[in-house]
Amino acid sequence: MFKTNRILTISIMIAMSVILCSCVQDDDFKVPNDLGIEENKGLEALLSSGAIEVSMVELKLEYANNYRKPVLIETDVYIKGYVSSSDKEGNFFKEVFLQNAPENPTAGIKLILNQVETYNQYNFGREIYIKLKGLYIGEERVGNGVVAIGGETATDQYGTTVQRLTENQRAEHLFRSQNTLELTPLQLNFSEVNTSHLGLYVQFNNVEFADNLEGKRYFDPVQDFDTLREMQACTNDIGYTNFSLETSSFASFKDALLPFGNGTITGVITKTFDGSAIVLALNDLSGVTMTESRCTPLNIEDFDIVFKEDFESADDDTDLDFEGWTNFAQAGKVKWKERSSDGNGYAEFNPLGSGNASNIGWLITPGINKDSQAYTYLNFKAAQNEVRSASNTLEVMISTDFDGTNVLSATWQLLDASLPSQSTPSNEFVDSGLIDLSSYEGILYIAFKVKGNGRTTSLSGAYLIDDIYIFEKD
């Protein structure tokens, strides 16, 4: 009898061992295609319920339009997204980022939940549906600028935030489809990144870690939680452009040495804990391939100045009438003026007092003949005076088919420049940065276009332009 019981006991132990081993999540874990009856039923019920799919942009606007206070979703709506982050290597914690498409995504959002090792269930590229009724949209930390989906709210002396979904909420509101898609990283330059890219899976090319980081590791052991490492790029740029990589103290690769070559890096756009900076976070080290030779940036001293206008010959308070320039009033009677103050000349568009319901003024440079093979950059300075509305705008554009006369029949493309905002002190000139014109060919025209009016105080602000330069290097 004892012998029989002993054999039975051993058999039970072996069976239990097999069961336990089958539950272990090792490195060979494979995400099953079978989602389980309950989850399948939940997704089927959601899609057949008449609930309306909303976009991530619409969802985030609910929060923005509520004076950035958490919003309880009370209607039968849902969103669909694709998992762009992975916590398998410990660089993300109790959060899942989703983007709205597997290729060329235009919006992302964060989902916060009280669950670790989410990669086992919400694996990279997995298609996810979220039933939103009863959940909240807001920020996990007040003022950090990262909109998240949460299950509850909490209020302290800093404001009201959203809290993580409970396990019950997760099971009730989150549904995987059987689709796991390959995500194609969005190709970006450092200078192009903005808050609209938060949560997106992206790739930067021709980048490297800063010169002073040779021999350093991803994580600095003197820090407690996160380390920022500066990256740099010099593709067709004068000097470097920079961006930061953030690594958690819990990342499995934190002690790996930073590569010191040049190449590509792929990860998720997010923000630092306090929201003060936009950064890149790796899912794992497979996103880093830096084996090429380090780059050498262009030097502005090697460039020739092919166009310069500093307006030093301006006659104060007359319509600007410089040789070769076009000064055109598209709406209203106001044109750009020549101005001089404290010995400094500049151009100004000011609709104040015009009485016109709309004032739109164009100031266009003479044509600049560009060498098709040359590196070419534009630089200028701009200031604002009493601009009080986002509708009172300054735009900078380029055309290669303007005939010198017919402004509105030409093709104009917006240029990305640093411009003064409502918060910029009045009459304080802002440097535009170096604007790359290298991809354009032929005769180039640069236009400065202002919209405002002379009837509404909030739209009658002025814009000033000075020190326009175009640099070129073969």
From TrEMBL:
PROSITE patterns the record matches: PROKAR_LIPOPROTEIN (PS51257)
Domain spans labelled DUF5689: 54-286
NCBIfam families from the UniProt entry: choice_anch_J
Protein name: Choice-of-anchor J domain-containing protein
Origin species: Gelidibacter pelagius
